[in-house]
Amino acid sequence: MKLNHIDLPVTDLEAAAHYFQHGFGFERLHAPANGMAILRGEDGFALILQQAKQVDYPAGFHIGFLQPSDAAVHAAYRRLADAGLPLPPAPAVSYGCLAFWCQAPGGMLIEVSHRPA
C-alpha cells in the first residue's frame, strides 16, 4: 500500500508552502479552496497544508523523507542552504542512519534520512 497524501494544519500557510517548495522541491498545484495549499513531490506524494489559527503537534510528531543514499541526504541539506532557508545541524549518524532534522515554519519537525539496507 502506498501513502498518497497527508493533510497537515499550519499557522502560516504561505511560509510553510514556500519552505516545502524551495527547500524540498515540492510543486504547488491549484487548490480548490482558500486557506489550502496542495504540494506535489517528485514521486507524486501530495502534501496538503491547511491554514489553522493554532497548531499543537504532539511531542515527537514529525514527518520523514527517506532518501536513497547518504549523498542524497547531503544534497537535501544543500538544497535548504541554496534556498536561503535556516540551516539545522548538519547530517550526522543517528540510530544507524544518516539524518538531519529541521523545522518548517510553525514548528513542524522534519526528518531527512537514509537507512542502509
Describe the 3D structure:
The chain is of the alpha/beta class. 21% of the residues lie in helices and 36% in strands. It has two helices and eight strands, in the order E-H-E-E-E-E-H-E-E-E. It has helices at 13-24, 70-82; strands at 5-10, 27-29, 36-40, 46-51, 63-66, 92-94, 97-104, 108-114. Strand 6 (92-94) and strand 7 form a beta hairpin. The mean pLDDT is 94.
Helix and strand topology:
Blueprint (H helix, E strand, L loop, with lengths): L4 E6 L2 H12 L2 E3 L6 E5 L5 E6 L11 E4 L3 H13 L9 E3 L2 E8 L3 E7 L3
Parallel strand pairs: 1-4, 5-8
Antiparallel strand pairs: 2-3, 3-4, 6-7, 7-8
Approximate shape:
globular
Percent range for helical residues?
A: 10-25%
Output the radius of gyration.
14 Å
Discrete helix count: 2
Secondary structure category:
alpha/beta
Number of strands: 8
Distance between the termini: 20 Å
β-sheet strand percentage:
35-45%
Oligomer: single chain
Averaged pLDDT, please? 94
Low-confidence stretches: none
**Major sheet summary line:** 4 strands, mixed
Order of helices and strands: EHEEEEHEEE
Strand order of the largest sheet: 1-4-3-2
